[in-house]
From TrEMBL, chain A:
Domain ABC transporter: from-to ranges: 12-247
Pfam families assigned: ABC_tran
Protein name (Swiss-Prot/TrEMBL): ATP-binding cassette domain-containing protein
Phylogenetic placement of the source organism: Bacteria, Bacillati, Actinomycetota, Actinomycetes, Glycomycetales
Highest taxon of source: Bacteria
SUPFAM superfamilies reported in the protein's UniProt record: P-loop containing nucleoside triphosphate hydrolases
TrEMBL record, chain B:
Membrane-topology descriptor: Multi-pass membrane protein
First-listed, main subcellular location of the protein, grouped into a coarse class: membrane
Gene Ontology molecular functions: transmembrane transporter activity
UniProtKB keywords: Cell inner membrane, Cell membrane, Membrane, Sugar transport, Transmembrane, Transmembrane helix, Transport
Name of the molecule in the record: Xylose transport system permease protein XylH
Subcellular location: Cell membrane
InterPro entries named among the record's database cross-references: ABC_transp_permease
Species of the source: Glycomyces lechevalierae
GO cellular component: plasma membrane
Annotated function: Part of the binding-protein-dependent transport system for D-xylose. Probably responsible for the translocation of the substrate across the membrane.
Pfam families named in the record: BPD_transp_2
Amino acid sequence: MTITESAAPPVLSLRGITKNFGAVAALADVDLDVGAGEVVAVVGDNGAGKSTLVKILAGVYRADAGAVRFQGEEVALESPAQVHALGIATVFQDLALCENLDVKANLFLGRELRPFLLDDVAMEQQSWELLRQLSAKIPTLKVPVAALSGGQRQTVAIARALLGDPKVILLDEPTAALGVAQTAEVLNLVERLRDNGLGVVMVSHNMADVRAVADRVAVLRLGRNNGVFDARSVSSEDIVAAITGAADNAVSKRASRLAAGTEES
Amino acid sequence: MTRVENAPAVDLQDERLLAPKTLGDSVRAAVRRVRDGDLGMLPVFGGIIVIWTVFQLLNRTFLSSTNLVNLSFDIVPVGFLALGIVCVLLVGQIDLSVGSVSGVSAAITAMVMVQYGQPTWIAIAAAVAAGSVIGWVYGQGFNRFAVPSFVMTLAGLLAFLGVQLWLLRGQNAVNLPYDSNLVQFAQLWFVPAWLAYVFAVLAAAGVFAAGWIGARTRRAAGLSAVSMRLLVMRSALILAALVFAVYYLNRTRGVAWMFMLFVAFVLVMHYVLSRTKFGRSVYAVGGNPEAARRAGINVKRVYSWVFVLCSTFAAIGGVLAAARLAAATQSTGTGDVNLNAIAAAVIGGTSLFGGRGSAFSALLGILVIQSISSGLTLLNLDSSYRFMVTGAVLVVAVALDSFARRSRQAHGRG
Ligand SMILES: Nc1ncnc2c1ncn2[C@@H]1O[C@H](COP(=O)(O)OP(=O)(O)O)[C@@H](O)[C@H]1O
Ligand SMILES: [Mg+2]
């Protein structure tokens, strides 16, 4: 497969995203591009700012500075509802589910069918379809989410992001709580989403997952860009070096120079 | 897709699912749910049975038709307050000022009717509108200035008691004209016997029709549904209970219109909370406000609406309290009214921790509270005993709520 990022303009494009929490600069001048039909992995050490970046894109936090272009137009990411309406769906690291509500209610939260006489039957039917598609091992939709295991909850959170018709999906460590089969299922799903032309941003700690599905790997270190790599040609060692900053070496310099070079062309 | 004959419904295909197949299975499943801390309405039904039995043994007139008709009147004003409390508890907040707000509303009703000689409907509209405005102010304070609802409504408790006294201009009581429709409604208006039976039949038929249509659409969609037998049994049980209740109340004065008004509000709120998008968002905000916000729910608007609903119901309760007494007094809505309303909601099964409960808990909870009050009055025991017993019942209800919550967490029922 060839990378076609220079051919089509990216569906989502960030420039100079900056976010401070009090005295902590969580993100400083971060750039990121996601093309349609492209999987971009975002990697970085704990506290590198990955989740902060995802939350800014999801409309949960407001960036202090920077610009976001979505489908070629400059947009302001103001609230989760507005971002979702644009077509950006998010699976948060903490999942953000309502434990007192059942699976079906969580899946359709904020997007219920027939607002004045909830169409529970249609919602349940679609929920089952969606969960089957993810090979979810959830015995019943009638229990509150509190009754589900960590992996089941993660599946519910992922399923929720697929509802509607998103153009871009942000996944913050989507496989962290999953077993082997489910992880494979999620990776399959990511590939399906890409083949359907969606842009996917996947935050992950797992090098194997990253290398399995990502087209490009963007490294964050201490809230700053620390290189963008072509996932097919980069070695795990180089990514790890960029993540830890242990070897501020020729490889990472070369890679960022290359990445910058491809963006200009 | 062709459906295989006898293939399990879409939602029953997981082999780990302990799906009830027989009536016995259903009963066992219910017992398991309760043991895991999913108590629902069970404690309040149990409470009503115990309380009614004890008081009937102590005083033979307690379960007389006359006393139950009185009870059906007396639960309504505070019942409206409890209905409002249910709403704020569901979003995980509290309103300690419902008593004072009902007092203000009673005072407005009386002053507009008597002092300013306006028609009844204007008095009622003014009082209810005042309640809505108070709720709106609470919502603004909560959303914009992040004042905790506990503190804000505690301040409201005092402030609106002041407003109530100021409105009454130092008069101990302002009497409403006894021949006004409002007073007649709250003391003398009863549903004609035949119509009460029609209501009973309609209610049971409604339950059956809703269940039947629901089951049919579920089966058509390949989902499991309640069996016809269970549906018929449930509806027949409801029909029998309602017809007996109507018959028993009709032996003396009958079914009060004021009681029907309260039941209608409870049913409407039940519908809103369980069958609309707004209701869903109320539960979501009570369960996890941040998750609700990230799901695109306008959390602030939900809080606003809930505070407005609560104060509006409190105001309606105040109007009816004044009507019931044919007067607005300095003590309307004071004393134990606040705590009774909160106790009723909690005793009825609405959790103090947010996200759990139903509109019916207002009806059932206030029935417990007023039964205690009525029973102690029949025994000629003064309010000192009433306060002590109600306080004890509230503690038991809250302890049960907390205990059930811990048990639910241990058994994964949220
Ligand atoms: N809500 C917050 N308030 C203050 N500091 C925060 C907040 N969220 C994140 N941070 C800080 O921002 C930095 C990046 O966090 P995060 O984006 O969660 O990292 P990660 O890459 O592990 O997901 C951390 O130093 C963290 O302490
Ligand atoms: Mg993170």
